[in-house]
Amino acid sequence: MAAPSRRVAVLGGGSLGLLVAAALARPTGRIARQVVLLTRTPVVPAGATAAELLAPAEITVEDRCTSAAPGAAPAAAASWTAPVHVPVRPRQASDALPPLDALLVATKHYDAVRAVQGAHAWLTPGRTALVPLANGLGLEEQLRTAFPAQPLVLATTTYGAARRGPLRVAHTGVGTVYVGPAGGGRAAHAAAEGVLNDFVDAGLHGVWDPNMPRRLWTKAAVSACLNGPAAVLNVHNGALASPAATPLLRAICEDVAAVMAHAGVGPVDAAQLFREAHEVQSSRPREPCVARRDGLTNGTGEPRAGGTLTQVAVRTAPNINSMLQDVRAGRPTEVGAIYGYIVQQAAKHGVATPRLQLLHDLVRLREACGPSDGPVLDVLPPPPTAPAA
To answer: What value does the mean pLDDT of the chain take?
Structure first.
């Protein structure tokens, strides 16, 4: 019997887009999946022939995880890092595949709606599911408003990736892809199940989550705890594992929890959110991870769980998170999608969020300062000492 077929496009040639496109394009024999990567800028040299424009490009994945852990399978690891050929097309191209089943939106949050509008030729009303993968909150509302004819699937991932070139990406951390429907009804569930099956079939660790809004808010709490402070202080994530940072991380969770209680995602106290927030990232260890046919796991063969939010900072210690990368490069950040959205919801419900508002304003100020190339600190600077009497 022939394998079921799926047609999927990944929108965005950044780190996550490259990693996801390469993973989904690997042949498995279980699902006959056609994958295309849609980018804003060409990845082939100017003056390329028509044949060169249409030829699949080669995406190379560098595995930064340790593959020498007990139980490592060299052949499986090679299948993860072997170059993958994926058609790469400008997002406004009109030579679309026959009807797409899903468009995975892997752009920055602030560019997502505009990017999907640019790729409208690839959408089939009522069929092509939009799957936003960006950081932050509120994107699903924007997509639902802008594209009411398209099914919507909610997803988020804790896989780590770093772009090394136009078609080269480093896999920097094992994780999980959480998927769930954006609404009720059989069609919404079917669309979400199809997307989850794509990820699982491709060897990624996929998990069904029927309460994705809460999952997205919890991940936003993680981002709020780590991204803004690291960007403002110019430190690696590991610096926030310092006991000196713990009161700030707890205070941020208090602000987020207060808003969640009024935003329709269920009441939660700050201590509970603090625990849930670290669990969002707890399946993303930095050592050791093993590439396997059934997914990427740690050396025990299972995704890690437990720990504390401080331990998340320890496990991701070498990371320069995306917000800090953006401010250092002089690029816009996703501060509006993380802090801005939560602060807006707080104002709507009359909830005070002083720590989030301050971090929002400080990141905006940091953006305004322009690019910087100084060293990123590994530890928080010591507190000032009181002058001698």
So the answer is: 80
b/e code 109-133 from CB counts within 10 Å (16+ = b): bbbbbebbebbeebbeeebbbbbbb
Can you tell me the distance from the alpha carbon of 350 to that of 189, in angstroms, rounded to the nearest whole number?
Answer: 34
Do 240 and 95 fall into the same domain? Answer: no
Domain hosting 327: range is 213-368
The verdict on 105 and 229 lying in the same domain is: no
In a shared domain, residues 253 and 206: no
CA gap 256, 355 in Å, rounded:
10
Which pLDDT does position 72 carry in this prediction?
33
- Does 235 share its domain with 354? yes
282 and 187, same structural domain?
A: no
Q: Dump pLDDT digits (tens) for 132-154.
A: 999 999 999 999 999 999 999 99
Range 54-58 average pLDDT: 70
| Residues facing 54 on adjacent strands | none
What single DSSP character describes residue 244? G
Measured torsion, CA atoms of residues 372, 322, 14, 210, in degrees rounded to the nearest 10? -170
pLDDT in tens, 282-294: 434 333 333 333 3
Question: Checking DSSP bridges between strand 295-298 and strand 177-181, what pairing results, if any?
Answer: unpaired
